[in-house]
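--- STAGE predict ---
source: upstream dedup step, 1 unique chain passed
mode: sequence only
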Amino acid sequence: MKNNKLTIGQMAKVNHTTISTLRLYDKLGILKPIYVNPDSNYRYYDIRQCIVFRSIQFHKNIGLSLKEMENISKEDTFSYIEELYYRRLSELSIQVENLNAQQRAIVRSLHAIRRISQLPPAGTTTLGYLDAEYVYARPAERNYLEEDAGSVELGISHILEHMERDHFSYEYAFFIGLTVRREDFLSGILKSDTLCLYVDRSYVGKRNIQIQPQGTYASIYFDDYNRIGEYMGKLRQFCRDKHCTIAGDMICRWIGTMNLERFINHKEFLRLQVPVIVQEEQNINV
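--- STAGE serialize ---
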């Protein structure tokens, strides 16, 4: 090295990079040699240009493209760099939100797998406390209870379109529910009121989010959507036997939609639940 000058090979070695990378940066104009020998065509860099190289690597590490760095070399103003930084910060915020959503989806799915492995037999009734849950709900487009589960899938497809427009992630596509108004449940009328997807608490306050409140619920489990009317009747009778007053709308919740023995074959398992007020002291499962 003479007079702080480095050959392209020395510049690459000092900065732990490759000659081809330096040639690319030269071509883009973001790191040009200070001198090119006209006879040998050898490139020479000033050792002080290492800080320029490190600046390029820094900007690569925060996600700026080579094209953006090329523009920096042309614009060469703090205002332009500041604009790029704010834009990248906004992009990173979205990425962080998406990564957090993916993390929540995995945790939620692990809980679902654990819950599925411990499901009671079909026909089991329970009276117990359930935590509050949060749903993205839309009015029922049709009476899903008079059709098969395929109509529910079509409705979910439409809900996902609305969720995408409202900037919700796809992580909730498997957590399905529908509701029946209290008066229809009491009268034995098969009429769906809303169709919904369960989301996590972070979405509270956003468009179309509703809360299914915590409290005491009478529930019944079953494994055939086509028999929902029969199980609604059994749940009403269970409430009468337990001297419970129906306190809100009935919820049909898809509890399990996977076959633990063969993942690609979905197997539905559902729970009907309705909030109740117990008229006399009962043994409540918490």
